[in-house]
Amino acid sequence: MTLHDVTAAFESVYDPAWAAPWDAVGLVCGDPDQPVRRVLFAVDPVAAVVDEAVAWGADLVITHHPLLLRGVTTVAATTPKGRVVHRLIGSGTALYTAHTNADTADPGVSDALAAAVGLTGPLVPLDPDPADPSGRRGIGRVGTLPAPVRLREFAARAAEGLPDTAAGIRVAGDPDAEVRRVAVSGGAGDSLLGAARSAGADVFLTSDLRHHPASEFAEQGGIALVDVPHWAGEWPWLADGADRLASALGPRGATVEIRVSTTVTDAWSWTERV
């Protein structure tokens, strides 16, 4: 199959038109006519992932995070992003990104996160897309646990369901508080704090919670917070994205091998207690 064949199948599942106006999704580098036999899914388009792709012989890397989200004036190999571009082109490896269009898909990034931490259906959007008449597509998900648990148990379940990172997870709330209704959002979610409260959630699990918004939210009481590493919270989507691509390719996809990267690209490599 060609790169065009594979990306067209992928876009039938994760329509680029669903991406936010500020986002940068789609094909970053690669010849649409080049053959694709191996596809690697990863969260971040960083050097370690490119190394993994080249070592495996991947023809295409599909990442969740964009490489060139903000404008650049050069891709010279003297810059980190430039080195990634040069390595990809030099090895004949294409790069495609699916960011907010994968967040808002049905199912999308937050559906995979919800499953990883034990939520059961039906799941509803935490922040629905008003342009979607079904009301299903949007950012974040809200669901329920099979049975109520204590916050400490839910946090342990989340840690078990997500990949290991140096930073681990952070929790705000009474460890013995009962939780049943859970809101989740893959990626940075502090803009959805109010939505999680309005949804009647007992706990909101997301990433990149800043001190002041989290502190002020906790002062209001009534809902616990679980902060997971950004990379770990989005990693569960990779397997779902890979499976949906394989289904979209159909019988012709038998010639394409798809793998999920296990390279940890979380920004933090170790911690020290203060």
UniProtKB/TrEMBL annotation:
Secretion signal, residue range per the UniProt entry: none
SUPFAM superfamilies: NIF3 (NGG1p interacting factor 3)-like
Domain of life of the organism encoding this protein: Bacteria
Alphabetical UniProt keywords: Metal-binding
Pfam name, any one: DUF34_NIF3
Family, per entry: Belongs to the GTP cyclohydrolase I type 2/NIF3 family.
Subunit structure: Homohexamer.
Identification of the protein by name: GTP cyclohydrolase 1 type 2 homolog
Native source organism of the sequence: Nocardiopsis mangrovi
